[in-house]
Amino acid sequence: MIVSFRLNGKEATFPVGHPASLLDVLRADLGAAGAKNACEQGECGSCSVLLDGVLVCSCLVMAADVEGSEVATVEGVNPADSSLHPVQQAMDDAGAVQCGFCTPGIVVAAADLFDHNPHPSQAEIKEALAGNICRCTGYGAILRAFEQLAGRDAP
Amino acid sequence: MTTRTRQTTEVTGGIGQSTARPDSGPKLRGEFQYAQDLTADGMLWAATVRSPHARARIVSIDIAPALAIDGVHAVLTQDDVPGRAMFGLEHPDQPVLANGEVRFWGEPVAVVAADDEDTARRAAAAVVVDYEELEPLVDSEEADARDEVFRRMRIRRGDQDARGSVVVEGFYEVGMQDQAPLGTEAGLAVPDGEGGVDLYATSQFVHVDQEQVVASLGLRPDQVRAHPVGIGGAFGSREDVNLHIHLCMLALYTGRPVKMVYHRAESFTGHVHRHPARMWYRHEADELGNLVRVEARLVLDGGAYASTTAAVLANACYFSVGPYRCPSVAIDGVGARTNNPPCGAMRGFGAVQVCFAHESQMDRLADELEMDPLELRRINALATGDFVPTTGQLITTPLPVLEVIDSLEAMPLLVDEPGADPLELPGGTGLTTERSDVVRGVGYAVSIKNLGFSEGFDDYAQARVRLTEEGAIVETAAIEVGQGLVTVLAQIARSSLGVSRAQVRHMDTSRIDSAGSTSASRQTQLSGGATHQAATQLRQRIVDRYGGDHLDDAGVWRGNELVASIAEVTRETWAETVTFRHPATERPDENGQGTIHADLAVAAHRAVVDVDPELGMVRVVRVDTAQDVGRALNPEAIRGQIEGGIMQGVGLAIMEELVVEQGKMRNATFTDYLLPTVLDAPSVEALLIEQDGSWGPFGAKGVGEPPTISSTPAVVAAIRAATGRPLTRVPVRPQDIALDDAL
């Protein structure tokens, strides 16, 4: 069975031979290694992607189910040049990256938050990131990054 | 003569500045390559067969069903290990693959290599192992009674008949915490076609991995090269070998590159954990609160194999009194050998367990004396020129115990009253707690820990600094685990050499000598020390070569005259290699006495918690800290260490525990092993206490571990203040607070 879908705006296909997750296929078959596997259970958010515009853990999505869908990963958040998306820039400026393993998932979740809500409150930022575990930073720099981004363009 | 002027200000990106990480861009874009992301042409995937028993005799292993699966290339057992077949960070007591008996749940029994990951895992499941179950030894005190121990420690100092007029006793327990780095164990081994192998695997110490692969597989040292790779966190879990030897065996056997990545459940069994501890304490003081005598008995459960239990136990004993003067001390410690999961290094390394106990004792003593708990700590505070109460070591480096206590107390207590928003209440959106049921508490704790390796270990780090047309290049085998080694070594090179362009280049074990382990808060001081010395010597050589007196981005200067441009200078090859050693330490004598430690660091924490006493729910509102850092080389990176370390300390205080029953883990998943999320994160304010005098570069001290040590007892003290419960065990569970029989 060949599955066709759109990955970061481009046509993509892959064969499904065994019960693979979307995360497995992204990483192993489609070279989109930005999404990380850390728990296989949808607990840590390291594999976060947008599936038809909805934030999901790609480890919990059966690969075969994305037929005809639109999937956006961290690679789709990245600007075409080597620059950074505003949420990425905010994290860089705040020193919010340490080991970086949770970072792509947080970038995807935060980009989704700011797309829908350009000026989130601190509570809204926390709620949006509650599904992303970071073991290094204690979340302080991550919160500072997004609080600053939320306020920067505030009217 | 040039019209430009020589740089007189501190070089851009030098020490003291919060320079950005060089790897944050690739990490933010998902382009940074971790061990999990490595591939090679013709690569096979490996998987591990693990013991389902805590202790059993292996009657037989039938690999035929696995080999019969299409795409399986190898199934190897202990009989296939060609060399010493045993490994271990301090003592080689662990079989590469189980030899006749499995001694813990999850112990590797066989490894397989196959065309893809799915096939490898199916093949691992198809290996038939016939076990005869044996009674596991799972109680650390029973192990002590049976003399199943890795090490016993005995410390005696001062008049053993000294007695105080005020006495408090207590028994304390610490559960098994997991490092839970987000990146699981992963690696790739590539055979070189001449009998050797290149290993790219998660690690905190590539040179010791290389030594263990060489010994276990009977190879020559030059046949194995261990390469630093991208790592998703560590916190102590990557000091020990796990998949490294297996990967190299399979690569050499099959003649193909072999990759393995542990799943999360495997990761929980595949690395060592923080030692569970049982601790009996007796503190005696005079009526003014001066400590007169401390007695303690410490039992740490080392699990099935040695790992670093001997060193963790020693650390627990050495820091069992905390950062306080005490003239009479008697400490007995044991690292027990059981059939529980092996324990070893985790951030704080023995100091975490005893800090929970000694700080709980200090609060009890203050209560007994009707004294302010901080005042009690203040009158007993250790300082430079004092003797460490356990070892008798004279403290010669700065030790600002009083300063961290006073600074912390002076910090404003910035807390709002809890609001009605469920996110701000204990239990969160579970909506279990009413605002009116919430009680607030405040608690304090202070900690002390050694920096670098102790007890006479020859602790050193090599670094090479080059000056090229690309700027300064620091070559090192030290491991970046996320802490910011790549930032701070470049900063040190810039300030020491005088040029603003600098980068860190990771070297494999064949290209540079050891940097030692990325642990014990040691790399800023050790690899930083080597970088500082190499860059300083290189700068002198370059300046002398051109008869100048100053080097900066423009080149070499004599007074205000540029005598050689940087382009001219870098047409020559400039490199300086330095092996840096910290002040020598010594083994303890029969009473645990001696110059055991190279340097010490202290920290103090203040926690504010909201508790629903009826439901036992806790929310940690904020944790403030003052920390002894020597000299802050990168304030933002230090803040990152402090906030992350505090979060792990909060985790141990109220939620993180690997539950082990009869030797078997019951919660080896992220669903069941609870890790703090952003909703659990307290606000943190941190004061960095800087004092000159440490031997680290520019006076820097290691900063990684202290945040994790006293944050745990500070949180528990705050919960006690809110509830009046004794709370002698961490993590504190809801029933410890809410149920009457906890009293």
Write a brief structural summary.
The complex is a heterodimer of chains A (155) and B (743). Chain A is α+β, with helices and mostly antiparallel strands.
Mind explaining what this structure looks like?
The complex is a heterodimer of chains A (155) and B (743). By secondary structure, chain A is an alpha+beta fold. Chain A has helices at 22-29, 74-77, 86-94, 103-116, 122-129, 140-152, and strands at residues 2-7, 10-15, 48-51, 54-57, 70-72. A five-stranded mixed β-sheet of chain A has the order 2-1-5-3-4, sandwiched between helices. The longest helix of chain A is centred in the C-terminal third of the chain and has 14 residues, at 103-116. Chain A is globular and about 45 Å long. Chain B has 743 residues and is α+β, with helices and mostly antiparallel strands. Chain B has 18 helices and 31 strands. In chain B, the strands form eight sheets. A seven-stranded mixed β-sheet of chain B has the order 3-7-1-14-11-12-13. A six-stranded mixed β-sheet of chain B has the order 9-17-16-15-10-31. In chain B, helix 15 (635-654) packs across helix 17 (711-723). The chains are: A alpha+beta (155), B alpha+beta (743).
